[in-house]
Amino acid sequence: MDVFEALADPTRREIVAMLAAGERNAGDIAGRFPIAGPSVSRHLKVLRESGVIAYRQEATSRIYRLEPQSLSEARQWMDAVLDATKARFDRLGAHLDEMKRREEDDG
Amino acid sequence: MDVFEALADPTRREIVAMLAAGERNAGDIAGRFPIAGPSVSRHLKVLRESGVIAYRQEATSRIYRLEPQSLSEARQWMDAVLDATKARFDRLGAHLDEMKRREEDDG
DNA sequence: CGGCTAATTAGCTAACACGCTAGATAATCG
DNA sequence: CGATTATCTAGCGTGTTAGCTAATTAGCCG
């Protein structure tokens, strides 16, 4: 349930980036990393449990896909933080502009 | 240098959210958490080293602020992933629409 | 300089995360 | 059903991290 924790690991971010390009089965994913299969499998589990990915069974294969909603929520958090920060700067800028204007008016 | 790792810890995310509302000194930040001061200090260090926050010295206080650029980069990564995913779905939708249209044309 | 306040670093413990190998599970195919 | 393929879970070793308390550094003020 914690997307940011799931994305903290670089291998998991690579998996996410791979799945952004399209679905893949577990073996295909594992084959693209220099680490052992079970290690990748554990990463897939973390991503699954945090809701970042999901899979469907196809014969003996698990075909994984991205589940964009969870990532969207994480992005919304960032948007809120960045928007609030930007809003503060905008207010500061307006404030400074006004100070400058008054200074010019006065003399 | 790893923003996602820095954001993996919930305490650190709270610190970030706090700083989105405005600057604060270290003691003020620490006072809002139920954990000991040094523990917060260590979190601040992680956030500093990942470029998420910065501070200026003011008398004996360190006044911390958000450094939005690093967060922006993280968000850009998410945007890229989500955009790629959405684009795939859009193409799929167009494909299905076309199949449907041809079917109707053929009767 | 000596005392004061603010914040950090040092050093410890307990918990967790990532890697590995070996064994278990699940679904398919002859 | 037995063999095969694909994937996961179990269990272990090691390194890292989060928390704590105690000691240290950094900057100010009389």
Describe this structure in words.
The structure is a homodimer of 107-residue chains. Chain A is an alpha+beta fold. Chain A has five helices and three strands, in the order ααβααββα. The longest helix of chain A has 39 residues, at 68-106. Chain A is rod-shaped and about 80 Å long. Chain A starts with a helix and ends with a helix. Chain A binds chain B through residues 2, 4-5, 7-8, 10, 13, 16-17, 20-22, 66, 68, 71-72, 74-75, 77-82, 84-86, 88, and chain B through 2, 4-5, 7-8, 10, 13, 16-17, 20-22, 66, 68, 71-72, 74-75, 77-82, 84-86, 88. The first copy, chain A, binds a DNA duplex (30 and 30 nucleotides) through residues 9, 11, 25-27, 30, 35-39, 41-46, 57, 59-62.
Task: Give the helices and strands, then pairings.
The structure is a homodimer of 107-residue chains.
Chain A: H1 3-7, H2 10-21, E1 24-25, H3 26-31, H4 37-49, E2 53-58, E3 61-66, H5 68-106
Antiparallel strand pairs in A: 1-3, 2-3
Chain A binds a DNA duplex (30 and 30 nucleotides) through residues 9, 11, 25-27, 30, 35-39, 41-46, 57, 59-62.
Characteristic key phrases:
alpha+beta, 5 helices, 107 residues, DNA-binding, homodimer
